[in-house]
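Q: What structure does this chain adopt?
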Amino acid sequence: MSTTTAVVRKNTYYDSVSLMSVSTKANALDGVEQAFTAMGTEMNKGVLENLGLLTEELRAAESGDLMIVLVAEDGADTEALLAGIEDLLTRKAPASAAAGEVTYRTVASAAAGIEGANLAVIAVNGAYAAREARKALESGLHVMMFSDNVTVEDEVALKELAHSKGLFMMGPDCGTAIVNNVALCFGNKVRPGSVGIVAASGTGSQEVSVRVHALGGGVSQLIGTGGRDLSERVGGIMMVDGIRALAADPATDVIVLVSKPPAPSVEKKVLAEVAAAGKPVVVWFIDGSEEAVAAAGGHFAAGSLQAARKAVELAGTAGTGGAVAGGAVAGGAVAEESDAEAAAAEIVARLADGQKYVRGLFCGGTLCDETMYAVRDAGIDVWSNIQKDPAFRLPAGAASRGHTFLDFGDDDFTNGRPHPMIDPSLRVERIVEEAGDPEVAALVLDFVLGFGSHEDPVGTTLPAIEEARRLAREAGRHLEVVAYVLGTDLDTPSVAAQTAALRAAGVTVTLSSTETGRLAREIAKKAQA
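A:
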């Protein structure tokens, strides 16, 4: 029988990124059934209450208190496990002091005390993020706000303040940026170059940056805007400022714009900036208008791979990367559209009667979108928690139906929990759950590497993949698993190592997000034929 222990450390603050990382590592300790480290906010206490873990001591915790909750396996040494979690927490704290650095208690004191500082990364609870971002902007700092669950009203006010001061306000919910070849939050290690990216999508910008790298190009700057920037209410404030900044940047020769479907009025506003940029601009707006982009003098891209290819071609830096050969079979690689058609035919031939649906379980929202739209554009109904069509929208906790594509990084899944790129446990559980549905033909997964992500996303997921396949096999079915690894040869772990582990397990691997969508589309079409 498991044992639950709760500890409250008064007046002990850690930022949310650090606590996400600690929670992930704590859950990997031998003997831990579940571990939770978080600040004592009402939102976090609500999560614990839903999990049945909220004690009276935790209920009394204040927002400046650290909560540690441990559910230990039967027979495990609880004291030793708590000491291990404490070690994970304190191991981070002395690092800066040991390096001779000073710890600052406020944004303003850090801005005043660090010579040349010009950017602040905000990763506190969303209830406090706007306040801290305003302090940073008023101190003359650019801001990258990793925090989510910030109101639209606060976002607009902060972006208008930043614009008036000539500063960037990247976010809220901005997960990726590369500034002067330094990757921030969920960025990948890519070579420097002349392709600049402005993106209202974290994993979308990551995908374009790694594909540019694989094709022999490099990135000058990657400016994240936050996912709502191109909404009607926000009005594309930061994307417009980003375009103007890269247009004036001598190190940038080509600009790439990335977004999920923008509001029509905001799309017109952004395309007007494309026309005035004075540099080649590649536009990848999911479900965007090729005619509108061409009329603005831009270069339309229908997918992430096409966007990267156009960018390196226009920059004159195209190399030989990105076209990795491989068989279109389980354990092989799907690299081109023709491979997708052949692989789908081979996969469907192994299915039992009644297996006809594709289930996509994604960590990256734009990776989910690109695959979902590829299937939908073939005239196939698709259900998702991020569907624009309310008739096909699924609540985060609902069971899948038909072809379902879930974004586990959406706010409904991450409210009070680490992002799935840090802690993939929710998706791991869903992989096994989906295997119990006799109508499922294939699972489609993404694995996102880079700074801030789980140190071995494939390794921590393979046991669930193996269990899912075992359940299907015992029921007389073949369950196909398709996966894509977003990363570069410079990331740790490398994309080659993670891909090799998947292939060794018999997983069909695609070599870009675009090809993931093509293969999912072909499987869906052929399985229902």
